[in-house]
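re: the backbone from monday

yeah here it is again, tokenized this time
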């Protein structure tokens, strides 16, 4: 009998799951055993109904007037977002940002394992960054196929981002996390998340300016 396909969850709900997990892990550190939607909502300043709907997506059921058993809830949320089964990834562009991401140990707790970096700079190829080898970018497609890598991270400049994306597609990569400040032309079915650092900075700058103006 075939497994039922996963139901597509609303993106805003998925984005809230890490917030729930951070709160849940903190509660576990305080040796809390049971937690309710109302309590989580108060901690995170969100609507309790929203929390209840989000957690229902994981398939877990709680006890009336008691809530959820904390260890089971943590397991359910981590399984729902795939953090119970870390996914290997390749990163292309070992500059300042790429180096920082390669060295970020927190990814291991979030279901991501960057196994190698790639670059075209001869001065970087053959070195290791945070224990990860830096390889020639041209080798990516073959290695991605052989290692069944499904996630690619782009940390090159805008001019080279599409070329890198094409290399990833040639290697069978199915999801791209793009830090380059440019849109990518990808075929249907490829998962794309654009990390707009400049947009975030613009929001911060604007809010600071508005605060200075007394708005």
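seq for it, each position gets an aa:
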């Amino acid at each position: 009998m075939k497994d039922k396909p996963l139901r597509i969850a609303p993106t805003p709900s998925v984005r809230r799951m890490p917030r729930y997990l951070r709160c849940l892990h903190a509660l576990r550190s305080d040796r809390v055993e049971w937690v309710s939607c109302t309590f989580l909502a108060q901690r995170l300043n969100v609507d309790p109904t929203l929390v209840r709907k989000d957690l229902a997506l994981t398939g877990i059921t709680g006890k009336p007037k008691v809530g959820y058993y904390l260890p089971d809830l943590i397991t359910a949320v981590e399984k729902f977002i795939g953090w119970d089964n870390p996914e290997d990834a390749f990163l292309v562009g070992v500059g300042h940002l790429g180096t920082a991401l390669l060295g970020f140990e927190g990814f291991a707790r979030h279901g991501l394992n960057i196994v190698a970096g790639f670059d075209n700079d001869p001065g970087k190829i053959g070195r290791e960054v945070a224990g990860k080898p830096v390889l020639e970018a041209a080798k990516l497609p073959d290695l991605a196929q052989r290692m069944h890598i499904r996630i690619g991270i782009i940390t090159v400049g805008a001019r080279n981002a599409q070329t890198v994306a094409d290399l990833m597609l040639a290697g069978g990569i199915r999801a791209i996390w793009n830090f380059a400040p440019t849109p990518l032309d990808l075929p249907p079915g490829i998962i794309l998340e654009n990390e707009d650092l400049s947009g975030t900075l613009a929001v911060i700058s604007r809010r600071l300016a508005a605060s200075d103006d007394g708005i």
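The chain has two domains: 11-80, 87-199. Residues 1-5 have pLDDT under 50 and may be disordered.
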